[in-house]
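Closing statement on the zinc ion sub-project.
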Amino acid sequence: MNLQPHRDFLTEDVQERFLRYVRVHTTSDRHADTTPSTQRQFDLAHILAGELRDLGLTDVTVTEFGYVIARVPAHDEVNAPPVAFLAHMDTAPDSSGEDVNPRIWENYDGGVLTVGHGIVLDPTEYPDLRDFVGETIITTDGTTLLGADDKAGVAEIMAAVRFLGQHPEYPHPELEIIFTPDEEIGRGVDKLPVTELHSRFAYTMDGGKEGSVEAECFNAYRVHVDIQGYLIHPGSARGKMANAVTIAGRLLAALPQSESPEATDGRYGFYCPVEITGDYGHARIEMIIRDFEIDEVRRRVAYIEKLADALQTANPRARITVTATQQYLNMRDRIAEYPFLLELLTEAITSIGVTPILDPIRGGTDGARLTEMGLPTPNIFAGGLNFHGPAEWIPVRSMVRATETILTILRLWSERVAPDTPLPTVRPEVRA
Ligand SMILES: [Zn+2]
């Protein structure tokens, strides 16, 4: 079935949904230890569950942890195994996601978009804009992030479900819809009941620019350095005091600047200090370490441990501890065990007239964690750019192409993935 004649309908539907979903405040909070990290994420979860039921789905659940899980039964004549599509409902805590007031720029003329509040989208700075001359672009009003990451993904999956409801003849396997909380704080699949899912394969709709596909991501570690100082009156501290602030500063200054996010791109990894708190009695540093090769991550963790050791020796009265925790691993090898996952995906994208761009992602997604847990999960573009800040923008056309990609994968999946395809084993114990 050709999707071309349905483009106007899909455009209207996905745009309307997107504009509605971004107005729901769903910022997550990395300092909270509940799931979801913020109760407000339930607001969107309940809206989506209600809309899925209105679209005729009967198997729709909002779990106690804020996950929306819904199922569209397979087309009668399709015996291919089920597949899941995921998107996350939260937005990044780096920028405000409250009172999002999207601006719509129809028939973009290729010039500078003066978004407001000092935010300007200039094609000389953001050349991707040039690919969307004549298209409708949605931006912020300059005061918040937009939330295209990942409400575009949510809107695209919802539009695909609506399309399937209206076209019962369209071939598709059983489709699982999963909307997750807390992806932006790295906990998007922590409480997902993986063993209860019907699917053993999934796709996340959480990538960037139109055409981009990600089946390789960073290996990610978080490193916590705790520095317990030794305090004594500064007037009589000579030879005695261990100043936690000073030690923290030395440690940070010893990180190689050539291995920072500011200095790297492509396949190079980095150290990135993300938070420092405390006073001269007690200080804490949070750092993230990223690299496509796990050995490079281990080398960096070892370097921080060596630095801490050296600072400990120089400040015998301090107590410095380093704790490293794995956040997610590169998904490349596990996805490669099921080549049809990427084959169908690139074929789907090509067939709707878009050139697939297969880039390693300098970040991670729910898909990376899910892949580790036994559901190989490549990531598909949702269409947005400049994520996590007020310069975020998205062309409506990209959301339509993403929706068409979902629908086309479902059709190809029905035709190509054999009912007896060997399935990966679920490993819920991998969950942190
Ligand atoms: Zn995202």
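Residues 4-217+330-430 form a domain with the Aminopeptidase fold (CATH 3.40.630.10). With this model delivered, the sub-project is considered complete and its resources will be redirected to Aim 3.
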